[in-house]
């Protein structure tokens, strides 16, 4: 319930008529010469679920700074994006704007009434403990929360503080990371084995489903082997078809991970000198994952200060800026996310897609109907849009391309979708 209320904050123009397709269609501008196709000038619509916002789950052992980081990101999001319909959906889910200067440039050129940045949903997940996959702690419940996110930010404690209890008695990032990763691996293994048992019954009737079942079985055998070796599912090379076949399992170790080394105030200026951070760095690189160093505590304290005192505080720590903007941008790019824009008089909007998405898939981020009925996408590169000044001018100059369903959307494309539903 809270989600839906807050969604309407995020996209204030969603009204109850959104639910009625006919009225929704009525508002789309029909610029097509054929009576069936419509040209969408993206404006007011998004799915009731906030589909442009991908979810990053903040995961880690208890007491490592997850909530401190979450609160800092969310509070800062509010402060940094006064114009952004930012919201906390539930106490532990918050939406944060992704800073992007291109948005305002496009918005000014199109004389848009408003500019809506891309966003990431951050989810603060309760601490995992050893044995979680066997139901220890709050075990399976929290593993299921991780299953729902698109990517994982694994917070690793790199600060020493005798007053703050460490569940295993001492600060040891390598062991902490291993504990978490083992729980994720064990949970996936359980899931994979249950699924393999089911697949043995071979329920597929037609040849298409049989092929899919076979692909799933082959993929699961490979994944099972990797998991038994303690390796994540994402380390297994799979074909696109196999990947698709196992997607429904939402395996935890298939999700991209960024390690967040949470350091003490005294390490902010030179985190690399902290041996715990070095350990995390080495592991992150071995595990082909990203790494961000931040002090959740400093970020939380910065939020408490009036703006003029923030600069003083940062200076006293030997740094120029807060690490949060960086964290958000890094999360966005390390997760292979890309931005495309829609730009019109009503609104200029940045949409988030996964790298490699085709034009219909990108259209589907706005609404599933646009993917289903996709015909083509009028596309212009960001810099060409800026040099021409508008879609019409870009068309006149031959900079506007008409792209079909196989077109892979490029970073910064400005797009108009033609579709037929
Ligand atoms: N970089 C840091 N330096 C010093 N103290 C920190 C730092 N980050 C967090 N803390 C402190 O660590 C304690 C635990 O933080 P927090 O509640 O955010 O942990 P958590 O991972 O959310 O724990 P739980 O799993 O129990 O929810 C708090 O007292 C917080 O102020
Ligand atoms: Mg917490």
Automatic annotation (TrEMBL):
Subcellular location, record wording: Cytoplasm
Family annotation (Pfam families): MMR_HSR1, YchF-GTPase_C
GO molecular function terms attached to this record: ATP binding; ATP hydrolysis activity; GTP binding; metal ion binding; ribosomal large subunit binding
PROSITE patterns: G_OBG
Keyword Transmembrane helix among record annotations: no
Residues annotated for ATP binding in this entry: 63-68, 263
Keywords: ATP-binding, Cytoplasm, Hydrolase, Metal-binding, Nucleotide-binding
InterPro entries: ATPase_YchF/OLA1 (IPR004396), Beta-grasp_dom_sf (IPR012675), G_OBG (IPR031167), GTP-bd (IPR006073), P-loop_NTPase (IPR027417), TGS-like (IPR012676), TGS-like_dom_sf (IPR023192), YchF_C (IPR013029)
GO CC terms: cytoplasm
Domain of life of the native organism: Eukaryota
CDD domains in the record: TGS_YchF_OLA1 (cd04867), YchF (cd01900)
Keyword hit for Heme: no
Domain annotation OBG-type G: ranges: 54-336
HAMAP family: YchF_OLA1_ATPase
Family named by the database record: Belongs to the TRAFAC class OBG-HflX-like GTPase superfamily. OBG GTPase family. YchF/OLA1 subfamily.
Record's function text: Hydrolyzes ATP, and can also hydrolyze GTP with lower efficiency. Has lower affinity for GTP.
Record NCBIfam families: redox-regulated ATPase YchF (TIGR00092)
Subunit structure: Monomer.
PANTHER family listed in its UniProt record: OBG GTPASE FAMILY, OBG-TYPE G DOMAIN-CONTAINING PROTEIN
Protein name: Obg-like ATPase 1
Taxonomic lineage: Eukaryota, Viridiplantae, Streptophyta, Embryophyta, Tracheophyta
């Amino acid at each position: 319930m809270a989600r839906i209320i807050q969604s309407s904050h995020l996209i204030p123009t969603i009204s109850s008529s959104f639910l009625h397709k006919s009225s929704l269609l009525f508002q789309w501008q029909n610029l097509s010469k054929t009576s069936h196709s419509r040209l969408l000038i993206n404006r007011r619509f998004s799915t009731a679920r906030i589909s442009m916002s991908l979810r990053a789950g903040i995961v880690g052992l208890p007491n490592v700074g997850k909530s401190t980081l979450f609160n800092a990101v969310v509070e800062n999001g509010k402060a940094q994006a006064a114009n952004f319909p930012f919201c906390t959906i539930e106490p532990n889910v918050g939406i944060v704007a992704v800073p992007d200067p291109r948005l305002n440039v496009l918005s000014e050129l199109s004389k848009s009434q408003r500019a809506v940045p891309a966003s990431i949903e951050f989810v603060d997940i309760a601490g995992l403990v050893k044995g979680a996959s066997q139901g220890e702690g709050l075990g399976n419940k929290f593993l299921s929360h991780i299953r729902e996110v698109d990517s994982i930010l694994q917070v690793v404690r790199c600060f020493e503080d005798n007053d703050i209890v460490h569940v295993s008695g001492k600060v040891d990032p390598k062991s902490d990371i291993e504990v978490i990763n083992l729980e994720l691996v064990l949970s996936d293994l359980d899931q994979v084995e249950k699924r393999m048992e089911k697949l043995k019954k071979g329920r597929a009737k037609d040849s298409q489903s049989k092929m899919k079942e076979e692909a799933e079985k082959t993929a699961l055998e490979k994944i099972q082997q990797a998991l038994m070796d303690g390796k994540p599912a994402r380390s297994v090379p799979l074909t696109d078809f196999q990947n698709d076949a196992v997607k429904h399992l939402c395996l935890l170790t298939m999700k991209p991970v960024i390690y967040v080394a949470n350091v003490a105030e005294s390490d902010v200026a030179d985190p690399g000198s902290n041996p715990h951070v070095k350990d995390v760095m080495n592991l992150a690189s071995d595990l082909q994952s990203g790494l961000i160093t931040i002090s959740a505590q400093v970020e939380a304290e910065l939020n408490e200060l009036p703006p003029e005192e923030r600069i003083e505080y940062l200076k006293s720590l030997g740094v120029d800026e807060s690490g949060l903007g960086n964290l958000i941008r890094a999360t966005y790019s390390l997760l292979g996310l890309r931005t495309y824009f829609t730009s019109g008089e009503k609104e200029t909007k940045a949409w988030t897609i996964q790298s490699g998405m085709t034009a219909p898939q990108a259209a589907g981020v706005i609404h599933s109907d646009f993917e289903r009925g996709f015909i083509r996408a009028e596309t212009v590169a960001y810099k060409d849009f800026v040099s021409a000044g508008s879609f019409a001018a870009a068309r006149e100059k031959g900079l506007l391309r008409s792209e079909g369903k196989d077109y892979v959307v490029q970073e910064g494309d400005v797009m108009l979708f033609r579709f037929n539903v």
